[in-house]
Design a protein that fits this description.
By secondary structure, this protein is α/β, with parallel strands linked by helices. The chain contains 27 helices and twelve strands.
Length: 690
């Protein structure tokens, strides 16, 4: 590829970075950054806790309101909770003879041991429960008994075929029946409102929920002026796609926001959020004993605007439990004030969508990086006409796809290509720049400075890819984490593999040692495959391959918000220390492994070029992939992603300089030993010195 074509491809990347910068400014102006945090208390859990402790609910709620709680999360009634509160009595059908006398003769249908009778002394509650049970269980299963009780059919005898057929159509188990949400309790809503608390309605889905569910929700919240939003429990939002438009219309008409718990997946949540123009608020559950740094990270780095509390029931150390809970909430409030926030009703982020023109330019930048990467292997000039046709096809094809139903898939694919391509592009550029200087291995200050420059340059290329990724997926749903960057594990695992193969193809070094002389790209690829296949099966190769697979498995299993491999306590302590010292903690894969390995690869490449250099390049690729992955967290403000990357870079560079010093020391202390690590790398038959 000619110099002019190379410059044009880098110009495409520069233009894409300019579009990314404009997108970031537009997004910041549109979304802003509300400094108001809503503090919500789980009302149902609190009522149960207070009842068990023999405390007064009004006193507890007043105390928590004084401490800073602004909102009560009121969930739906269940038969289990109503029974525990003493508001209903649950009597099994086997006790029919004892309760039948309570009702007029002939008013009670035939019962068997599997039926359930719900005694409801409160007339208002009876009026609420009867339609709720009939809606959720079906008319056939629920029968009113005068104005005091409700009969629910369950677990019939096999001989009663007709009733058994009814139950097969509504297959509720005992536990599901007792814990079935039966609508918001008006009594709880009145109590919360009386204490000056805003209400967040916590609504449960149920099979067959239709338009009547939306009507019931609207009726139950009618007249409750302090309702701020609605949140859904379970695995899905209320009613699914069938009533999504009606539910969205209700939220919009009443001015309620859609609340959701972070890191919790729910079917239909993203679609409903889209239907209400992403007028949504993300919650963070502040667990008992959670460090304040975790809360700070939630509000500063993940756009959390509501903190959700449950009463702390242990660890008071002899103190009054109300006082203990008040102290915890007060500590959170004081910390929020110190961080520049204030308490009050949360303000949902306005909607934002990345403009199509910006998306097109961003995709062009990603395509330019991959064309450059292809040329690192192909190493041939393009015909000018073909080159211009390809570039025109990139922009025109990208714009056409962004205007089609495949637009979102196109953006996600381009973002994933940015996460994989730019780290490899930067590292392959390092390999292309390295020259064998023929100097004696040892400490060489200009060489170390050049290696530091290579570390910075490679990281800048990777950060460029991360910025394009972040801009491509900069819509509101990604900012709110209702949708996320997909393929994280593959984007972490692929760059080391691609970089390893590209290293041998770029340098004509054989995996078996020595030079692999081949002229055309396809000949180099064929020769590489043959050399790789013909490697002798030695103990070192087996151990090395097993170690590589183990490292890859650990990295993949530790990736994500909920890693499959638990993080050791020592590493947790190290992370906490770094968070306190640096405010934004760098990633372990970067500063502890990736960046030091990159500095070693850059420094050693000035003197020697051999097959074992690929070990350091593979580790460096892991670190660079982690840098790109940092920017895939769209919910994190960009300044924190840049800050995290900077901290990882300077800390990794410091450790890399120390690693170079150790390598030089090993070389001079054991220069006559074949087992010396530096000597083994520098005398591996892979090219050696010029």
């Amino acid at each position: 590829m000619g110099r002019g074509q190379t410059i044009m491809l880098w110009l495409m990347i520069a233009v894409a970075l300019g579009a990314a910068g404009v997108t970031f400014v537009m997004r910041e102006c549109a979304l802003g950054d509300s400094a108001q945090i809503e503090l919500a208390l789980d009302y149902d859990h609190t009522a149960r806790y207070v009842r068990q402790q023999g405390m007064d609910l009004d006193t507890f709620l007043s105390g928590m309101r004084e401490a800073g709680i602004t909102t009560a999360v009121v969930g739906e009634m269940t038969l289990r909770e109503l029974a525990e509160e003493g508001r209903v009595a649950l009597i099994d059908g086997s006790s029919y003879r004892d309760i039948a006398r309570m009702f007029p003769a002939g008013s009670v249908p035939a019962l068997h041991s599997g039926n359930l009778v719900v005694l409801v002394p409160e007339q208002e509650l009876w009026v609420e429960l009867l339609p709720a049970l009939r809606t959720r269980l079906g008319l056939e299963r629920v029968t009113p008994l005068a104005d005091q009780a409700i009969l629910i059919a369950r677990q019939p005898d096999e001989r009663e075929e007709e009733e058994a057929e009814i139950l097969r159509r509504t297959p509720w188990t005992d536990g599901e029946l007792l814990d079935l949400g039966l609508g918001l309790d008006r009594k709880s809503l009145r109590i919360a409102q009386a204490h000056g608390l805003a209400v967040l309605a916590y609504v449960a889905d149920y099979p067959g929920a239709g338009p009547e569910a939306v009507t019931d929700l609207a009726n139950r919240l009618q007249g409750v002026a302090s309702v701020s939003g609605v949140m859904f429990s379970g695995d899905s939002v209320l009613g699914g796609a069938a009533i999504r438009a009606e539910l969205a219309q209700l939220l919009t008409d009443r001015g309620w926001y859609l609340a959701f718990m972070e890191h919790k997946e729910q079917r239909g949540l993203d679609e409903l959020a889209n239907a209400v123009s992403y007028r949504a608020v993300k919650l963070h559950h502040a667990y008992r004993g959670e460090p304040l740094d975790y809360v700070r990270a939630a509000v500063r780095e993940r756009h959390v605007r509501m903190l959700y509390f449950r009463p702390i029931v242990s660890g008071a150390g002899g103190r009054d439990l109300l006082t203990y809970n008040q102290e915890y909430v007060t500590r959170i409030v004081n910390a929020l004030t110190t961080w520049g926030y204030r308490t009050g009703q949360a303000e949902p982020l306005p909607p934002f969508t990345v403009p199509k023109w910006a998306q097109t330019l961003l995709i062009g930048g990603v395509a330019g990086a991959w064309i450059l990467l292809w040329n690192r292997w192909w190493q041939k000039d393009w015909h000018p006409v073909m080159f211009m046709v390809v570039l025109a096809g990139v922009y025109l094809g990208g714009y056409a796809l962004l205007s089609s139903p495949l637009a979102n898939q196109m953006r996600e694919l381009a973002a994933w290509c940015a996460a994989v391509g730019f780290p490899v592009l930067g590292l392959s550029g390092l390999v292309a720049r390295q020259k064998l200087l023929g100097r004696q291995f040892g400490f060489w200050a200009p060489g170390l400075a050049r290696a530091m420059g290579d570390l910075l340059l490679v990281s800048l290329v990777t950060v460029s890819g991360g910025l394009l990724l972040n801009a491509l997926l900069g819509d509101s749903r990604y900012v709110l984490q209702l949708d996320q960057f997909r393929g994280v594990k593959l984007a972490l695992a692929l760059p080391p593999v691609v970089m390893a193969g590209l290293f041998f193809l770029q340098t004509d070094i054989s995996p078996a040692g020595g030079q692999a002389v081949a002229r055309s790209p396809w000949q180099r690829l064929s020769r590489f495959g043959k050399d790789l296949w013909s490697l002798p099966l030695t103990y070192g190769l087996v151990v090395g391959a097993a170690a590589a697979l183990l490292i890859a498995a650990v990295i993949l299993l530790r990736a994500g918000n909920f890693p499959l491999i638990p993080i050791p306590d020592l590493e947790v302590a190290m992370r906490d220390l770094l968070s306190q010292a640096l405010v934004v903690r760098p990633r372990t894969k970067e500063f502890l492994f990736g960046h030091p390995a990159l500095l070693l690869a850059a420094y050693l490449g000035l003197f020697y070029r051999g097959r074992y250099q690929v070990i350091f390049l593979g580790l460096a690729a892991i670190g660079q992939a982690s840098v790109a992955n940092t920017f895939s967290h769209i919910h994190t403000p960009l300044v924190f992603s840049l800050w995290r990357t900077f901290n990882g870079l300077w800390l990794g560079a410091a450790l890399g300089v120390a690693a170079v010093g150790v390598m030089i020391g090993l070389y001079y202390c054991g220069r006559n030993w074949r087992t010396s690590l530096a000597g083994y790398i520098c005398d591996d038959g892979g090219g050696g010195r010029e």
